[in-house]
Amino acid sequence: MRDTDLRGVIAASLTPVTEGLEIDADRLGAHSAGLLDQGCDFVSVFGTTGEGASFSPRQKIAALRAMAAGGAVAMDRLIPAVIGSTIDGAVRMLDATADLGCRAALVLPPYYYAAHEAGIAAFYEAVLTRATAPSLPIILYHIPDRSRVPITPGLIRHLVDRCGARIVGVKDSTGDRDSGVMLARTFPDLAIFTGDDRVLPDLLAAGGAGLIGGLPNLFAPDLAALCRSPEGEDAPRLIRLAKARIDAVDHEDGVAVMKGILARATDDPSWRRVMPPLLPSSNARLDEVEHALAAAGPGPGVAAA
Q1: How far is Cα 143 from Cα 155, in angstroms, rounded to an integer?
Q2: Which residue range forms the structural domain that includes residue 98?
Q3: Is residue 268 one of the residues assigned to a domain?
Q4: Nearest Cα to Cα of residue 302 among 248, 265, 249
Q5: Whole-structure pTM over 0.85, yes or no?
Q6: Has residue 192 been placed in a domain?
């Protein structure tokens, strides 16, 4: 792969929210540092798990700058997600990401309009042409159930041909084992990540790079161990745990559930806050998920935040 350090477990961080519905940059910096201490290789902020579509570029850039000033986390271990449908907004995010020394950016295709593949390619090309940091690596974000826009092999080839080494990887969040394996085998020069813990062992066996997912917010040590040794002595237990845990958490209310579980594990109720239109999970729902997690194995090994 072109960038061999872009691999392993990348935690798709949850985003702590203040009472005034702003990003709590201090908590986010501390949480990100804790995830790295627990074995994650990088942290991706403001993706789907991080409610990135619910924050403006202004809010996200301000939070990144505050995190850089706070010094709790090394900025070159962060991979911010760029989620939006405007070229201007995406360029602003990429420029700030590069200026602050972040490692790469995870870029979602534009959504809302059901655009043709040529139009999606034109969006990416316009953004990368206008961004002032031509060396910032880009990971394409394939999550068609949310964006309604697939990142197809044809689109990947087109963007690699037009944008060259800027395109370093793809995150496949379909949860489809065959999709991830196909991408890893078709594009051996790119870092192919899955967004689903259950797909991770097969993706790694096919030459994939690792995981960009939300469950490291709660179970980073186990997922880091599985990624580093997917065929090791402890791998069957870790694979069973990963499958059971994502089955318990990965539902429409998954972000709110993970925040609620994290709030309980850290004894910090502020983690339960979500950005509208999401709503916090009820105690009954959290009890149900905690029961399923407890039946699977040891509880969350969360980072202090």
Answers
A1: 14
A2: 8-232
A3: no
A4: 265
A5: yes
A6: yes
What letter does residue 148 receive in the DSSP assignment? S
CA-CA distances (angstroms) from residue 262 to 109, 137, 228, 271?
30, 31, 25, 7
Please report where in the chains the tokens 């394996």 appear, as a residue. Answer: 181
Band the pLDDT of 11: cuts 50, 70, 90: very high
- What are the residue numbers of the active site? 48, 112, 141, 171
DSSP string for 213-245: ESTHHHHHHHHHHHHH-TTSTTHHHHHHHHHHH
Give a yes or no: residue 98 inside a domain. Answer: yes
Average pLDDT, the chain: 94
The encoded tokens of residue 266 equal: 């850290």
Residue 134 belongs to domain with CATH number = 3.20.20.70
When divided into structural domains, the chain yields a total of 1
For the chain, the residue count is 305
User: By C-alpha distance, which of 198, 199, 161, 197 is closest to 183?
Assistant: 199
Tell whether 82 is covered by a domain. Answer: yes
